[in-house]
Design brief:
Elements lengths: L4 E2 L9 E2 L16 E4 L7 H10 L4 E4 L3 H6 L11 E4 L5 H15 L6 H15 L1 H11 L7 E4 L6 H12 L4 H9 L5 H9 L5 H6 L9 H15 L2 H7 L4 H11 L4
Helix pairs in contact: 3-4, 4-10, 6-7, 6-11, 7-10
Length: about 260
């Protein structure tokens, strides 16, 4: 399995290029098309130069809610010429409500944490339908890539969108799961950063550890239901209004030639 292609930045810790993942027909995902990350408002000038220069990032997809963006804005990256797509998957109120529901569910003795989180990810397909569709469409527009997609931790909202984009391109299940689970290697550092930010202090201190983990079983369960309920991400996007041409353009952008 291809190891994660980490980008070692000073102001963000869960940053990687999703290139090099195996897909149908012997194809692989291209490097330099899609980077996933935790929040980027603390990037340094050196980080910004690396992203916009070396990696040529032209587009940022910010999946944070309105309150998160108000508390922690774009930072130095927002002062460059990159295009921003601010796409709310969840409102601030919904985030708080879902966190409480998850914690209550985890209190049960017979709970399967991976199933609880995967169910929450499945609900994002309803709550974030417009955001996911818009994200794919904007990626396929001129200068839509290279793109960086992020939320606050780079695990849940970012994790679901990236998994959907990869699955829609025919990336192998094992590669999607491994990419998601790679976040767990950086979660301690992510939590350290979040704990220092007023809006996330309580989250980092009080949320059960399982809710903050990125275990392979969670993504496996999400993909199981994605395929059993919709036939996979490609079919989900088509049913949500993405055109076949848009889907083809995305696949051509993210995958090497067959």
């Amino acid at each position: 399995m291809q190891p994660p292609f980490w980008l070692e930045l000073e102001g963000a810790v869960n940053v990687r290029d999703v290139g090099g993942l195996g897909a149908d027909g012997g194809r692989t995902t291209r490097r330099g098309v899609l980077i996933r990350s935790d929040a980027v408002h603390q990037l340094t000038n050196t980080d910004v130069a690396l992203l916009t220069g070396t990696f040529g990032v032209r587009h940022v997809i910010d999946l944070r809610a309105e309150g998160e963006r108000a508390e922690h804005a774009r930072g130095l990256l927002g002062r460059t010429s990159v295009t921003y797509s601010e796409l709310d998957i969840l409102t601030d109120a919904m985030i708080a409500e879902r966190r409480a529901q998850r914690e209550a569910a985890l209190a049960r003795a017979d709970v399967d944490p991976a199933s609880i989180i995967a169910e929450g990810y499945h609900q994002l397909l309803e709550f974030g339908r417009d955001a996911f569709v818009t994200a794919l469409r904007r990626l396929t527009e001129p200068d839509g890539t290279p793109s960086l997609v992020h939320c606050s931790a780079g695990k849940d909202r970012t994790g679901v969108l990236v998994a959907m984009l990869l699955d829609a391109a025919g990336v192998s299940r094992d590669a999607i799961v491994a990419d998601y689970a790679a976040t767990d290697l950086r979660m301690a550092q992510v939590l350290e950063r979040l704990a220092a930010m007023p809006q996330y202090t309580q989250l980092a201190a009080q949320t059960p550890a399982m809710l903050l983990a990125a275990h392979a079983a969670t993504m496996e369960r999400f993909l199981d239901r994605l395929h059993s309920d919709f036939g996979g991400a490609a079919q989900w996007f088509l049913a949500a209004g993405v055109s076949p041409d848009e889907l083809d353009r995305w696949q051509d952008l993210i995958l090497t030639a067959g």
